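Input record (Table S2, row 180):
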Amino acid sequence: MHLKSHPKKITMKKLIIPIVLFSGSFMMAQEEKQEKILGDFDGNGTKEYVDAKVTDCSDECDGKCETTIYFSDKTIKSFTIAPAKGGAVYNLGDLNGDGKDDIGFYPNWCTSCWHPFYVYTLSKTGWKPLVPSIATHCNQWEADQFPIRKDPKKKGNVIITTSKWENEDIKVISKSVKVN
Ligand SMILES: [Ca+2]
Ligand SMILES: [Ca+2]
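Output record (calcium ion complex):
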C-alpha cells in the first residue's frame, strides 16, 4: 500500500510544474507584445520603441482623454491624439517608401463600435496623417480585416479597408489609394 501511493505523488509534481512555467512565460510574452513596438520611425537606420500613454481620462472616458505616442529615441517628437483612452499602436512598416516605418493607432473609447484608425508618417515638419482617418466598425476587426496595407499590385499605393453604413447594413469596402 505504502509503495503504491508513492509514485502517484511524484507524477503530480511533475505535471504541475511545467504548467506554471508555461503560463508565466506566456503572460510575459503577451505583455511585451502590447507594450513595446519596435521600428525605425525616423529612418536613421536604428530601431526605437514606440509606446502610448493616456492622461486625464476616467474609466467612463470623462476628461480630456489625450493619448500621447512617444519614442525611446527622444530626438523623435511625441504627438497626441484625442479623444482616446489609450489604444493599440502598430508599426505598419514603410507604407509610402520614404525609408521610415509608419505608425497606426487604434484608439480605445467607451462608447460605440465605430472607431477611427489613424495612420501617421514622420515628415520634416513633424508627424502628419498619411491618409485621412479610416472609419472602422468592430465587426471589421472581428473579421480580421486590417484597415491598411501595402498594395501588392501597385507600387506607391496602399489598400484601405473601411467600414460603411449603407442600406441599413455595415459594409466593409477596400480600395487602392496612392500614397507616394
Ligand atoms: Ca530610428
Ligand atoms: Ca514611411
